[in-house]
Amino acid sequence: MKASIGRVVHFVGHGLDLEGAPRCYAAIVTDVPANACGPDPDTDARCVDLDVRHRIAGRFVDHIPYSEDTTAVITWHWPERES
After folding, report:
1. How far is CA 79 from CA 10, 28, 38, 69, in A?
2. Which residue ranges in the chain fall short of pLDDT 70?
3. 44 vs 71: CA distance, rounded Å
4. Which of 56, 80, 81 lies closest to 70, judged by CA?
5. What pLDDT does residue 21 have?
6. What is the pLDDT of residue 5?
7. Which residues, 6 or more positions from 27, have their beta carbon under 8 angstroms from its beta carbon?
8. Contacts with 82 (C-beta within 8 Å, 6 or more apart), sequence order
9. pLDDT reported for residue 26
């Protein structure tokens, strides 16, 4: 899949206090900037800017790389499919 503005993804972070085990947060893609993660077009297309949602507050984060590792901190991935 290709990231585009308005898509819902998961952001992996430590929480608002930046402590504790990594966890997923719902996030909305706000931009897919060109050359955000380097000169490689394949890599660039996988970096996004996000509006990360939390039950207490939201925050904007920029230039977040994609990772298939769903526990890699400060990355995004597609939501897991539930059956």
Report:
1. 6, 12, 25, 12
2. 15-19, 35-36, 38-45
3. 21
4. 80
5. 79
6. 94
7. 8, 9, 10, 11, 50, 51, 52, 53, 76
8. none
9. 94
Residue 24 Ramachandran class (φ > 0 left, ψ -120 to 50 alpha, else beta): beta
- Print the SS3 string covering the chain: CCCCCCCEEEEEECCCCCCCCCEEEEEEEEECCCCCCCCCHHHHCCCEEEEECCCCCCEEEEEECECCCCCCCCEEECCCCCC
What is the pTM for the complete model shown?
Answer: 0.82
Question: What are 14's two structure tokens?
Answer: 């430590």
Every domain of the chain and the residues it spans: 8-77
The CA R_g of the chain, rounded to the nearest whole Å, is 12
